[in-house]
Amino acid sequence: MPDQKTATHPRWKQRPEGSTWGDFGVDDQLGRLNLLTPRKVREGAAEVREGLSFALSLPLDYPGGNALNPNRNPPVLRPLLRKGLVNFNCLLGDLEPGRTDVLSDDLAILHLQYSTQWDGLAHAGGMFDADGDGLPEAVYYNGFRAGREVLGPSDVGDCGVPAAPGAARSTSSAGPLGIEGMACTGVQGRGVMIDLRAHLGDERCVVGYDTLMRVMEADGVIVEPGDIVCLHTGFAQRVLDMKKQPDPAVLGAACAVLDGRDAKLLDWITDSQLAAIAADNYAVEAFPARQGPACCAALPLHEHCLFKLGVHLGELWHLTPLANWLREHGRNRFLLTAPPLNLPGAIASPLTPVATV
To answer: For residue 167, what pLDDT is reported?
Structure first.
């Protein structure tokens, strides 16, 4: 049902029930990242006691292959050219006699959601009657429209890696919801670890509100407005241990995932006012989700977070070493710095988050 609590805005006449559309401004592009205030940065910095840093990224060529997602492939590295020569181990003296330099320069073809990543707010939208005329439109957070602000091609020839050398050009843009907005905030604040693996083990377990609350209560975890919640399941460690040969059958039966169909869990995400969620598993939530009405989203937690609330989602973060250290020291909070690439128009981004304790 539409939520009529706020006045009509230029892009929409009604907003999804329970959404934050308009709460941070008519043209807001950051969602709950607005809660990463200077106070939250100070709260995060106050958790630094030992001066130890943990890099929370998998290598960008993990998981390996494309068995986990046939649409996403590992990075490709290639040398550039320098005046017609291969610019890798390039002897500059061959171009400029007498020079002693040996130079290398390369490029990368990256699938931005292949490894450790942030999902941007244009990663998941919804069909919703924002105009109030009974006809649903393809819209994203805060009513930004597919085909108007969030632009992409209709020709499959404009998708994927170009076959012809030199034919590469940008053909899509997330527009106002591009990942660069997230990057410009610095994404720094207080991280809070919820260690699901410590309580639920390594077998696949679909976690709803009640289980999550039991884990948090057992470990004394408190999530306050503006915190970035990190969910440790052990999945990324399993991926790393497979050494770029992931077994989909094994991983499909491994580790905890959130139950996106659990209304109480979604309400908690809303009411807690957390700023973002990062997990070490593949989609944060179970996919496919539990059976729900045919009218509804296949990824209900993505819909709730990215589309309705403006809560960014992190996936495949390598959280195990940090989670183990925190547990050994009776802690669950830390300073988190996690900006994505400042790549205008991108839907999502790889990153190397850093936790400092």
So the answer is: 67
Residue range 195-222: average pLDDT? 97
- Do residues 333 and 314 make contact, with C-beta atoms less than 8 angstroms apart? no
Q: Residue 337 in contact with residue 187, Cβ under 8 Å?
A: yes
pLDDT at 293 over 80: no
Contact between 177 and 29 under an 8 Å Cβ cutoff? The reply is: yes
Residue 291: pLDDT band (50, 70, 90) is confident
Question: Cα(226)–Cα(85) distance, rounded to whole angstroms?
Answer: 52
Average pLDDT of span 251-263: 95
96 vs 40: CA distance, rounded Å: 54
Q: Please give the average per-residue pLDDT across 263-283, as a whole number.
A: 97
Report yes or no: 356 and 48 within 8 Å, Cβ to Cβ: yes
Q: Which of 288, 268, 354, 279 is nearest to 312 (CA)?
A: 279
Structure token pair of residue 84: 């017609």
What CA–CA distance (Å, rounded) separates 206 from 257? 5
- Reply yes or no on whether the pLDDT at 169 is more than 90: no
